[in-house]
Amino acid sequence: MPKRFAIHGSLIARTLGAVFVLLALSGCERPGEPEASLEVAVRSVSAGVLVGDRALLGSTRHGGSYWNLTTQERLYSWNHTSGEATLMTAVGLSPQADWALTSDRNTLVLWNAQTGAAEQFWSSPAEVIDLALGVEGERAFLGLTDHRAALYNVKRGGVIRSFPHEGPVTTVSLSADGRLALTGSDDGSAVLWNADNGEALARHRYSTDVHLVRLSPNGERALSATRYDGVSIWSTQDDDVWKLPQGEERLKRGLRISAARFSDDGAYLLTGRPDGLVQLWDLEARTLMYTWRLPKRKRLQPTATVVLDVGFTEDLNRYRAMSSNGFVHELAY
User: Fold this and answer.
1) pTM for the whole thing?
2) What digits encode the pLDDT tens for the residues 214-256?
3) Domains (range + CATH), the chain
4) Are 331 and 319 in contact (CB under 8 A)?
5) Which of 68, 143, 194, 264 is 20 to 30 A away from residue 213, measured at CA?
C-alpha cells in the first residue's frame, strides 16, 4: 500500500529526497488537501457515518439524509416527525450500508436503505449517547447515560443483553460479525465483551474518561482514546499495546480524536481530529504515513472543522472524510 519514492541525481538531490521521506513519515510535512469535496449539508452536521460509498448524516438544516457518494446523489431525507427536521445526535449504518439507524437521544428509528422506508420506531429507556448497527440491521448496540451499553434486537424488539459500567457509556463499537463488542465510559475504562454471552474479555483502565473506541472489522485490533492518556491500539488476542505518537506537550494540553476507522484487514488506521486533521497510520510498521487538513467552509471562520468520520475505499490509496461543516472529502495518498 505505501508508495515507493524513487530518488535519483546528485548527492544533494538524494539528501533532500531522504529528508522529504522522513518528514512525510513523521507527519511533519505540510498537510495535504482534499482532491475533491461534495457538499452534503448547507449547515453544520451534528452526526455522521461513512460506509463504502454511502454516507448517513444529521444536519441542523435538513435533519437526516442518506447519500450515494459515487453518484453524488441524496437518496433519502429521513426525519422522525413529518415536516420537521430532526436533530440527529447519533447515527449508524450496518456493515453493508443496507440498514440505517438514527437517534435524537431518546427515540430511535431503523430505516431500510434499499427502500427508504422506516421499519421500526422505539423509545430508549435512557438517553442514547452513541450507537452501532450490526449486520442486516438485526442488532443495535447503544451507549446510554444510565451507566450501561445495551444490545437490542431491533427487528423483534427487546434488550438482548446489557453491559454495565460505573459511568455513562459514551462510545461503542461492534466487530463486523457482531461477536465482539467494545465500550468506553466516563468511568475511565474501555471494555471488550463477548456479545453472545456478555463476558468481559479485556478491561483497560485510564486516568480520565474514554471518549472514543473502535474495533477493526475482523475484531483483532481495538482502539481506545482518552484526553490525557492518548490513543491506544491494542490486540484483542494478547497484551500487545501501542500508543499513537502524539507528543508529550499535546498530551499535557489534552488530546482528542473525533473519528477513527481500521482497514478491513486491520493493518491500517485512519484517525480524525477536532482541528480538521486526518491521519493515516501503518499499524504493522507503527508509523504515521500521511496527514491531510480538511478546509473550513469560510477561510476566516474562527472555529475549526471537526472530522466526524473517516473511511477507506476500494482504491487502496484513496480515502474519505466527513466534516462538521457539511462536506464529504476525497483524500488521496
Assistant:
1) 0.89
2) 999 999 999 999 999 999 999 999 889 999 997 776 666 778 8
3) 124-256 (2.130.10.10)
4) yes
5) 68
